[in-house]
Amino acid sequence: MMDEFVTYEAFGAVGDGMNDDLPAICSAHEHANSLGLPVRTKSDATYHLGRRALTVIIGTDTDWNTSRFTIDDSSQPEDHKKPLFEVRSLLKPEQLQIDQLRRDQDQIEARPEHDCHVMVENDTEKVFIRKGKNRNNGIPKSDCFILRRDGSVEGPVDWDYDTFTRISARPIDDTRLTLRGGIFTTIANRMKQDVGYNYWSRNILITRSNTEIAGVSHYIAGETAVGHPYSGFLNINLCANITLRDCFMSGHKTYSTIGVADEPVSMGSYDISVGRVVNFTMINCHMNHILDRSRWGVIGSNLCKNILLQGCTLSRMDTHMGVSGTYTIRDCKLGYMGLNAIGRGILSVEDSELYGNALVSFRSDYGSTWEGDLVIRNSRWVPSCGDTIWPYMIEVHNDGTHDFGYPCSMPRDVTIDGVVVDDTNHPDDYTGMFIFADPSRETGDGSPPTEPPFPYSLCRRVKIRNLTTKTGKKWSLSPNREMANSKVVEEG
Fold it and tell me: In which domain, by residue range, is 16 found?
Protein backbone atom coordinates (compact mmCIF):
# COMPACT_ATOMS: atom_id res chain seq x y z
CA MET A 1 0.00 0.00 0.00
CA MET A 2 1.40 3.41 -0.95
CA ASP A 3 2.28 5.67 1.99
CA GLU A 4 -0.13 8.54 2.58
CA PHE A 5 2.71 10.95 3.30
CA VAL A 6 6.50 11.14 3.34
CA THR A 7 8.63 11.70 6.45
CA TYR A 8 12.17 13.01 6.80
CA GLU A 9 13.06 10.16 9.17
CA ALA A 10 12.33 7.60 6.44
CA PHE A 11 15.29 9.09 4.54
CA GLY A 12 17.71 9.26 7.47
CA ALA A 13 16.92 12.51 9.28
CA VAL A 14 17.80 12.37 12.99
CA GLY A 15 16.01 15.49 14.24
CA ASP A 16 18.22 15.94 17.31
CA GLY A 17 19.27 19.53 16.51
CA MET A 18 22.91 18.49 16.05
CA ASN A 19 23.25 16.18 13.05
CA ASP A 20 22.97 17.71 9.57
CA ASP A 21 19.52 16.69 8.31
CA LEU A 22 19.57 18.69 5.08
CA PRO A 23 20.59 15.82 2.74
CA ALA A 24 17.83 13.59 4.14
CA ILE A 25 15.28 16.40 3.79
CA CYS A 26 16.32 16.87 0.13
CA SER A 27 15.84 13.18 -0.56
CA ALA A 28 12.46 13.07 1.18
CA HIS A 29 11.04 15.91 -0.91
CA GLU A 30 12.53 14.52 -4.12
CA HIS A 31 10.68 11.27 -3.44
CA ALA A 32 7.47 13.11 -2.52
CA ASN A 33 7.63 15.22 -5.70
CA SER A 34 8.07 12.16 -7.90
CA LEU A 35 4.93 10.52 -6.48
CA GLY A 36 2.84 13.60 -5.76
CA LEU A 37 2.75 12.83 -2.04
CA PRO A 38 2.54 15.33 0.83
CA VAL A 39 5.30 15.62 3.43
CA ARG A 40 4.79 15.61 7.19
CA THR A 41 7.44 16.08 9.85
CA LYS A 42 7.85 14.76 13.37
CA SER A 43 6.28 17.29 15.70
CA ASP A 44 8.96 17.20 18.43
CA ALA A 45 11.98 17.05 16.11
CA THR A 46 14.64 19.76 15.72
CA TYR A 47 16.18 19.52 12.27
CA HIS A 48 19.62 21.04 11.79
CA LEU A 49 20.10 22.39 8.27
CA GLY A 50 23.90 22.29 8.26
CA ARG A 51 26.43 24.12 6.09
CA ARG A 52 26.11 22.33 2.74
CA ALA A 53 25.12 24.08 -0.50
CA LEU A 54 21.89 22.14 -1.00
CA THR A 55 18.39 23.34 -1.87
CA VAL A 56 15.31 21.32 -0.95
CA ILE A 57 12.74 21.45 -3.77
CA ILE A 58 9.20 21.49 -2.39
CA GLY A 59 6.55 20.60 -4.96
CA THR A 60 3.81 19.08 -2.77
CA ASP A 61 1.89 20.05 0.36
CA THR A 62 4.18 20.12 3.38
CA ASP A 63 3.20 20.13 7.06
CA TRP A 64 6.07 21.13 9.36
CA ASN A 65 3.59 21.45 12.30
CA THR A 66 5.58 22.22 15.50
CA SER A 67 8.94 20.93 14.26
CA ARG A 68 11.95 23.19 14.80
CA PHE A 69 14.66 24.02 12.29
CA THR A 70 18.10 25.45 13.10
CA ILE A 71 20.02 27.52 10.54
CA ASP A 72 23.51 28.22 11.92
CA ASP A 73 25.12 31.01 9.88
CA SER A 74 27.65 31.91 12.58
CA SER A 75 30.24 29.75 10.78
CA GLN A 76 30.71 30.12 7.04
CA PRO A 77 28.40 27.85 4.99
CA GLU A 78 29.51 26.51 1.61
CA ASP A 79 27.33 29.04 -0.26
CA HIS A 80 25.58 31.79 1.71
CA LYS A 81 23.57 32.90 -1.35
CA LYS A 82 21.89 29.54 -1.91
CA PRO A 83 18.35 29.05 -0.58
CA LEU A 84 17.70 26.15 1.77
CA PHE A 85 14.21 25.51 0.40
CA GLU A 86 12.50 26.40 -2.85
CA VAL A 87 8.75 26.00 -3.28
CA ARG A 88 8.68 25.39 -7.03
CA SER A 89 6.13 24.39 -9.62
CA LEU A 90 6.78 21.02 -11.22
CA LEU A 91 5.29 22.30 -14.49
CA LYS A 92 7.66 23.28 -17.30
CA PRO A 93 7.92 26.94 -18.44
CA GLU A 94 6.02 27.79 -21.61
CA GLN A 95 7.24 29.54 -24.74
CA LEU A 96 5.29 32.69 -25.46
CA GLN A 97 5.21 35.05 -28.43
CA ILE A 98 4.22 38.66 -27.71
CA ASP A 99 4.98 41.28 -30.34
CA GLN A 100 4.11 44.42 -28.39
CA LEU A 101 2.21 45.65 -25.33
CA ARG A 102 0.38 48.82 -24.46
CA ARG A 103 -0.27 50.30 -21.05
CA ASP A 104 -3.36 48.82 -19.38
CA GLN A 105 -3.84 46.35 -22.22
CA ASP A 106 -6.29 43.67 -21.08
CA GLN A 107 -6.15 41.16 -23.95
CA ILE A 108 -3.26 39.47 -25.81
CA GLU A 109 -3.38 37.27 -28.89
CA ALA A 110 -1.18 34.59 -27.29
CA ARG A 111 -3.01 31.53 -25.92
CA PRO A 112 -0.90 29.65 -23.34
CA GLU A 113 -1.56 26.03 -22.41
CA HIS A 114 -1.96 27.06 -18.75
CA ASP A 115 -2.70 30.34 -17.05
CA CYS A 116 0.77 31.85 -16.66
CA HIS A 117 2.71 34.39 -14.64
CA VAL A 118 4.35 36.43 -17.39
CA MET A 119 7.36 38.71 -17.00
CA VAL A 120 8.44 40.94 -19.87
CA GLU A 121 11.48 43.21 -20.05
CA ASN A 122 13.09 45.75 -22.35
CA ASP A 123 16.62 46.47 -21.18
CA THR A 124 17.12 49.27 -23.73
CA GLU A 125 15.01 51.57 -21.54
CA LYS A 126 15.61 52.29 -17.85
CA VAL A 127 13.11 53.15 -15.11
CA PHE A 128 13.32 53.58 -11.33
CA ILE A 129 16.53 55.57 -11.64
CA ARG A 130 17.23 55.95 -7.96
CA LYS A 131 18.32 59.18 -6.30
CA GLY A 132 20.32 59.69 -3.09
CA LYS A 133 23.04 57.80 -1.25
CA ASN A 134 21.98 54.51 -2.89
CA ARG A 135 21.66 56.10 -6.33
CA ASN A 136 21.87 53.96 -9.44
CA ASN A 137 21.26 54.01 -13.19
CA GLY A 138 17.87 52.34 -12.97
CA ILE A 139 16.59 48.93 -14.01
CA PRO A 140 15.25 47.63 -17.33
CA LYS A 141 11.63 48.54 -18.04
CA SER A 142 9.64 45.48 -17.03
CA ASP A 143 6.18 44.20 -16.18
CA CYS A 144 4.60 41.14 -14.66
CA PHE A 145 0.99 40.00 -15.06
CA ILE A 146 -1.23 36.92 -15.25
CA LEU A 147 -2.04 35.77 -18.76
CA ARG A 148 -5.11 33.52 -18.91
CA ARG A 149 -5.67 30.70 -21.38
CA ASP A 150 -8.16 32.91 -23.22
CA GLY A 151 -5.57 35.71 -23.63
CA SER A 152 -7.01 38.00 -20.95
CA VAL A 153 -4.60 39.91 -18.72
CA GLU A 154 -4.83 40.33 -14.93
CA GLY A 155 -2.54 42.92 -13.34
CA PRO A 156 -2.25 46.30 -15.05
CA VAL A 157 0.49 46.65 -17.68
CA ASP A 158 2.48 49.70 -16.61
CA TRP A 159 4.41 50.65 -19.74
CA ASP A 160 4.29 50.59 -23.54
CA TYR A 161 6.53 48.03 -25.26
CA ASP A 162 7.42 47.92 -28.95
CA THR A 163 10.16 45.38 -28.36
CA PHE A 164 11.28 42.91 -25.69
CA THR A 165 14.67 41.64 -24.64
CA ARG A 166 13.19 39.01 -22.34
CA ILE A 167 9.87 37.18 -21.95
CA SER A 168 9.20 34.41 -19.43
CA ALA A 169 5.96 32.48 -18.91
CA ARG A 170 5.66 30.37 -15.77
CA PRO A 171 2.56 28.12 -15.60
CA ILE A 172 0.21 28.61 -12.67
CA ASP A 173 -0.77 25.30 -11.05
CA ASP A 174 -4.51 24.69 -10.87
CA THR A 175 -4.24 23.35 -7.31
CA ARG A 176 -3.03 25.34 -4.31
CA LEU A 177 0.10 24.15 -2.51
CA THR A 178 0.14 24.73 1.25
CA LEU A 179 3.31 24.99 3.32
CA ARG A 180 2.25 24.85 6.96
CA GLY A 181 3.92 25.30 10.35
CA GLY A 182 7.58 25.09 11.29
CA ILE A 183 9.56 27.11 13.84
CA PHE A 184 12.82 28.35 12.32
CA THR A 185 15.74 29.95 14.14
CA THR A 186 18.58 31.61 12.24
CA ILE A 187 21.82 32.11 14.16
CA ALA A 188 22.92 35.26 12.35
CA ASN A 189 25.97 35.59 10.15
CA ARG A 190 29.02 37.54 11.36
CA MET A 191 30.35 38.54 7.94
CA LYS A 192 32.56 41.64 7.95
CA GLN A 193 32.76 43.70 4.75
CA ASP A 194 33.21 47.45 5.11
CA VAL A 195 32.10 48.54 1.63
CA GLY A 196 28.95 47.49 -0.24
CA TYR A 197 26.31 44.88 0.41
CA ASN A 198 26.74 41.10 0.46
CA TYR A 199 23.26 39.66 0.80
CA TRP A 200 22.68 36.25 2.34
CA SER A 201 19.89 33.84 1.42
CA ARG A 202 19.81 30.59 3.44
CA ASN A 203 16.06 31.01 3.28
CA ILE A 204 12.78 29.76 1.82
CA LEU A 205 12.41 30.83 -1.82
CA ILE A 206 8.87 30.72 -3.22
CA THR A 207 8.54 30.75 -7.02
CA ARG A 208 5.40 28.59 -7.36
CA SER A 209 2.17 30.44 -8.07
CA ASN A 210 -0.99 29.54 -6.17
CA THR A 211 0.82 28.89 -2.87
CA GLU A 212 -0.17 29.53 0.74
CA ILE A 213 2.37 29.81 3.56
CA ALA A 214 0.53 29.28 6.86
CA GLY A 215 1.82 29.41 10.42
CA VAL A 216 5.55 29.62 9.66
CA SER A 217 7.58 31.30 12.44
CA HIS A 218 11.09 32.74 12.14
CA TYR A 219 13.39 33.95 14.91
CA ILE A 220 16.83 35.57 14.84
CA ALA A 221 19.54 34.73 17.37
CA GLY A 222 23.23 35.49 17.89
CA GLU A 223 23.45 38.89 16.17
CA THR A 224 26.77 40.61 16.94
CA ALA A 225 28.37 43.98 16.17
CA VAL A 226 29.09 42.89 12.59
CA GLY A 227 26.97 41.16 9.97
CA HIS A 228 25.53 41.46 6.49
CA PRO A 229 21.91 41.58 5.39
CA TYR A 230 19.57 38.79 4.35
CA SER A 231 17.43 38.98 1.22
CA GLY A 232 14.32 37.75 3.02
CA PHE A 233 13.74 34.59 5.04
CA LEU A 234 10.59 34.26 2.95
CA ASN A 235 11.74 35.38 -0.50
CA ILE A 236 8.78 35.37 -2.90
CA ASN A 237 9.60 36.03 -6.54
CA LEU A 238 8.17 35.75 -10.08
CA CYS A 239 4.83 34.15 -9.24
CA ALA A 240 1.16 34.91 -8.65
CA ASN A 241 -1.62 34.38 -6.10
CA ILE A 242 0.48 34.08 -2.95
CA THR A 243 -0.95 34.22 0.58
CA LEU A 244 0.94 34.42 3.87
CA ARG A 245 -1.39 33.54 6.74
CA ASP A 246 -0.78 33.47 10.52
CA CYS A 247 2.98 33.78 10.13
CA PHE A 248 5.41 35.25 12.70
CA MET A 249 8.46 37.12 11.45
CA SER A 250 11.37 38.89 13.17
CA GLY A 251 13.12 42.20 12.70
CA HIS A 252 16.86 42.11 12.06
CA LYS A 253 19.54 44.34 13.54
CA THR A 254 20.48 47.32 11.38
CA TYR A 255 24.11 47.56 10.28
CA SER A 256 26.05 50.17 8.27
CA THR A 257 28.16 50.08 5.13
CA ILE A 258 29.66 52.46 2.57
CA GLY A 259 27.27 52.96 -0.35
CA VAL A 260 27.83 53.88 -3.99
CA ALA A 261 28.06 57.59 -3.06
CA ASP A 262 31.05 56.77 -0.78
CA GLU A 263 28.95 57.72 2.23
CA PRO A 264 27.72 55.59 5.14
CA VAL A 265 24.29 54.05 4.58
CA SER A 266 22.08 51.88 6.76
CA MET A 267 22.05 48.22 5.82
CA GLY A 268 19.27 45.92 6.92
CA SER A 269 17.57 42.62 6.28
CA TYR A 270 14.00 41.91 5.30
CA ASP A 271 12.39 38.88 6.82
CA ILE A 272 9.91 38.99 3.94
CA SER A 273 10.98 40.03 0.45
CA VAL A 274 8.50 40.12 -2.44
CA GLY A 275 9.41 40.75 -6.09
CA ARG A 276 7.35 40.67 -9.29
CA VAL A 277 4.36 39.01 -7.62
CA VAL A 278 0.80 39.43 -8.93
CA ASN A 279 -1.79 39.25 -6.12
CA PHE A 280 0.12 39.13 -2.85
CA THR A 281 -1.86 38.81 0.39
CA MET A 282 -0.84 38.79 4.05
CA ILE A 283 -3.49 37.86 6.62
CA ASN A 284 -2.97 37.91 10.40
CA CYS A 285 0.83 38.01 10.20
CA HIS A 286 2.70 39.47 13.15
CA MET A 287 6.04 40.41 14.69
CA ASN A 288 7.24 41.84 18.01
CA HIS A 289 8.83 45.21 18.85
CA ILE A 290 7.38 47.19 15.97
CA LEU A 291 8.60 50.46 17.55
CA ASP A 292 12.21 49.30 18.06
CA ARG A 293 14.33 51.59 15.88
CA SER A 294 17.38 49.31 16.15
CA ARG A 295 15.54 46.74 14.00
CA TRP A 296 15.21 47.02 10.22
CA GLY A 297 11.76 47.14 8.61
CA VAL A 298 10.41 43.62 8.25
CA ILE A 299 9.18 43.65 4.63
CA GLY A 300 10.16 45.13 1.29
CA SER A 301 8.62 44.62 -2.15
CA ASN A 302 9.39 45.52 -5.75
CA LEU A 303 7.44 45.58 -9.01
CA CYS A 304 4.29 43.89 -7.69
CA LYS A 305 0.64 44.04 -8.72
CA ASN A 306 -2.22 44.09 -6.18
CA ILE A 307 -1.13 43.89 -2.52
CA LEU A 308 -3.42 43.31 0.46
CA LEU A 309 -2.47 43.35 4.15
CA GLN A 310 -5.24 42.46 6.57
CA GLY A 311 -5.05 42.09 10.36
CA CYS A 312 -1.25 42.35 10.41
CA THR A 313 1.15 43.86 12.97
CA LEU A 314 4.44 44.80 11.29
CA SER A 315 7.21 47.38 11.69
CA ARG A 316 6.53 48.60 8.15
CA MET A 317 5.14 47.91 4.71
CA ASP A 318 7.20 49.14 1.77
CA THR A 319 6.94 49.11 -2.02
CA HIS A 320 10.37 50.21 -3.26
CA MET A 321 10.07 50.07 -7.03
CA GLY A 322 6.36 50.22 -7.28
CA VAL A 323 3.06 48.46 -6.98
CA SER A 324 0.21 48.74 -9.49
CA GLY A 325 -3.50 48.06 -9.23
CA THR A 326 -4.62 48.00 -5.61
CA TYR A 327 -2.49 48.49 -2.50
CA THR A 328 -4.67 47.94 0.57
CA ILE A 329 -3.82 48.16 4.28
CA ARG A 330 -6.83 47.01 6.34
CA ASP A 331 -7.14 46.52 10.11
CA CYS A 332 -3.35 46.64 10.54
CA LYS A 333 -0.82 48.12 12.94
CA LEU A 334 2.36 49.46 11.30
CA GLY A 335 5.35 50.50 13.42
CA TYR A 336 8.12 53.06 13.35
CA MET A 337 9.06 52.63 9.66
CA GLY A 338 5.43 53.05 8.64
CA LEU A 339 3.77 52.77 5.26
CA ASN A 340 5.86 53.51 2.17
CA ALA A 341 4.63 53.62 -1.38
CA ILE A 342 5.54 54.20 -5.03
CA GLY A 343 3.30 53.25 -7.92
CA ARG A 344 -0.14 53.74 -9.40
CA GLY A 345 -3.72 52.72 -8.80
CA ILE A 346 -5.70 52.87 -5.56
CA LEU A 347 -3.78 53.06 -2.26
CA SER A 348 -6.14 52.63 0.70
CA VAL A 349 -5.60 52.58 4.46
CA GLU A 350 -8.62 51.39 6.44
CA ASP A 351 -9.26 50.81 10.16
CA SER A 352 -5.54 50.84 10.93
CA GLU A 353 -3.05 52.30 13.39
CA LEU A 354 0.25 53.72 12.15
CA TYR A 355 3.36 55.01 13.93
CA GLY A 356 5.64 56.23 11.13
CA ASN A 357 7.06 59.74 10.76
CA ALA A 358 4.34 60.21 8.14
CA LEU A 359 1.06 58.35 7.87
CA VAL A 360 1.99 57.60 4.24
CA SER A 361 5.46 58.23 2.86
CA PHE A 362 5.93 58.35 -0.90
CA ARG A 363 9.58 57.41 -1.34
CA SER A 364 11.68 60.38 -2.43
CA ASP A 365 14.50 58.18 -3.79
CA TYR A 366 12.04 57.05 -6.50
CA GLY A 367 10.35 60.40 -7.07
CA SER A 368 7.56 60.39 -4.45
CA THR A 369 5.21 59.35 -7.21
CA TRP A 370 1.72 57.86 -6.98
CA GLU A 371 -0.39 57.94 -10.11
CA GLY A 372 -3.92 57.47 -8.86
CA ASP A 373 -5.85 57.95 -5.65
CA LEU A 374 -5.11 57.75 -1.93
CA VAL A 375 -7.88 56.90 0.54
CA ILE A 376 -7.40 56.95 4.34
CA ARG A 377 -10.42 55.96 6.45
CA ASN A 378 -11.18 55.29 10.11
CA SER A 379 -7.54 55.17 11.17
CA ARG A 380 -5.25 56.51 13.89
CA TRP A 381 -1.80 57.99 13.41
CA VAL A 382 0.80 58.51 16.16
CA PRO A 383 3.54 60.55 14.40
CA SER A 384 7.07 59.24 14.93
CA CYS A 385 5.91 56.76 17.60
CA GLY A 386 4.90 59.67 19.84
CA ASP A 387 8.25 61.48 19.77
CA THR A 388 8.33 65.27 19.58
CA ILE A 389 7.74 66.14 15.93
CA TRP A 390 5.86 68.56 13.69
CA PRO A 391 3.54 66.17 11.84
CA TYR A 392 3.27 65.96 8.05
CA MET A 393 0.64 63.37 7.24
CA ILE A 394 1.73 62.66 3.64
CA GLU A 395 5.46 62.78 2.96
CA VAL A 396 6.51 63.85 -0.55
CA HIS A 397 9.77 65.27 -1.88
CA ASN A 398 10.56 65.89 -5.52
CA ASP A 399 12.04 69.22 -6.64
CA GLY A 400 11.85 68.31 -10.34
CA THR A 401 15.61 68.18 -10.90
CA HIS A 402 16.08 64.41 -11.26
CA ASP A 403 15.03 62.07 -14.07
CA PHE A 404 13.59 58.92 -12.49
CA GLY A 405 12.72 57.43 -15.88
CA TYR A 406 9.00 58.30 -15.67
CA PRO A 407 6.79 61.33 -14.94
CA CYS A 408 6.21 61.88 -11.22
CA SER A 409 3.13 63.11 -9.40
CA MET A 410 1.37 63.31 -6.09
CA PRO A 411 -1.78 61.21 -5.73
CA ARG A 412 -4.44 62.68 -8.01
CA ASP A 413 -7.30 62.58 -5.48
CA VAL A 414 -6.86 62.20 -1.70
CA THR A 415 -9.69 61.23 0.65
CA ILE A 416 -9.21 61.53 4.42
CA ASP A 417 -12.26 60.38 6.36
CA GLY A 418 -12.39 59.59 10.07
CA VAL A 419 -8.71 59.97 10.99
CA VAL A 420 -7.37 60.77 14.46
CA VAL A 421 -3.85 62.25 14.80
CA ASP A 422 -2.10 62.09 18.18
CA ASP A 423 0.00 65.26 17.91
CA THR A 424 0.40 65.56 21.70
CA ASN A 425 4.20 65.85 21.54
CA HIS A 426 5.21 68.76 19.33
CA PRO A 427 7.69 71.67 19.14
CA ASP A 428 7.05 74.79 21.20
CA ASP A 429 6.22 76.87 18.10
CA TYR A 430 3.75 74.29 16.79
CA THR A 431 0.71 75.77 15.04
CA GLY A 432 -0.85 72.61 13.67
CA MET A 433 -0.15 69.63 11.43
CA PHE A 434 0.24 69.72 7.64
CA ILE A 435 -1.52 67.33 5.28
CA PHE A 436 1.41 67.37 2.79
CA ALA A 437 5.10 68.02 3.27
CA ASP A 438 6.64 70.62 0.97
CA PRO A 439 7.62 68.62 -2.15
CA SER A 440 10.16 71.21 -3.35
CA ARG A 441 11.63 72.00 0.10
CA GLU A 442 11.46 75.72 -0.70
CA THR A 443 14.58 77.69 0.19
CA GLY A 444 15.85 81.25 -0.12
CA ASP A 445 12.99 83.57 -1.03
CA GLY A 446 10.47 80.75 -0.70
CA SER A 447 10.04 80.23 -4.44
CA PRO A 448 10.23 76.76 -5.95
CA PRO A 449 12.70 76.14 -8.79
CA THR A 450 11.55 77.85 -11.99
CA GLU A 451 10.57 75.46 -14.78
CA PRO A 452 12.30 72.35 -13.41
CA PRO A 453 13.38 69.91 -16.13
CA PHE A 454 11.27 67.06 -14.70
CA PRO A 455 8.21 68.74 -13.17
CA TYR A 456 6.34 67.14 -10.28
CA SER A 457 2.55 67.23 -10.66
CA LEU A 458 0.64 68.36 -7.58
CA CYS A 459 -2.52 66.92 -6.07
CA ARG A 460 -5.77 67.73 -7.88
CA ARG A 461 -8.30 67.32 -5.06
CA VAL A 462 -8.27 66.66 -1.29
CA LYS A 463 -11.50 65.63 0.42
CA ILE A 464 -11.38 65.85 4.23
CA ARG A 465 -14.04 64.73 6.69
CA ASN A 466 -13.80 64.00 10.42
CA LEU A 467 -10.07 64.72 10.72
CA THR A 468 -9.25 65.41 14.37
CA THR A 469 -6.07 66.11 16.32
CA LYS A 470 -5.42 65.50 20.02
CA THR A 471 -4.25 69.12 20.44
CA GLY A 472 -7.35 70.45 18.74
CA LYS A 473 -5.19 72.60 16.47
CA LYS A 474 -6.40 73.17 12.91
CA TRP A 475 -4.46 71.50 10.14
CA SER A 476 -3.00 73.27 7.07
CA LEU A 477 -2.57 71.86 3.59
CA SER A 478 1.20 72.35 3.10
CA PRO A 479 4.04 74.77 3.84
CA ASN A 480 4.59 74.90 0.09
CA ARG A 481 3.36 78.28 -1.17
CA GLU A 482 1.85 77.01 -4.42
CA MET A 483 -0.06 74.24 -2.68
CA ALA A 484 -1.18 76.44 0.23
CA ASN A 485 -2.70 78.94 -2.22
CA SER A 486 -4.44 76.29 -4.33
CA LYS A 487 -8.14 75.54 -4.09
CA VAL A 488 -7.97 71.76 -3.96
CA VAL A 489 -9.51 71.09 -0.51
CA GLU A 490 -13.12 70.04 -0.02
CA GLU A 491 -14.32 69.71 3.61
CA GLY A 492 -17.37 68.10 5.11
Answer: 9-72
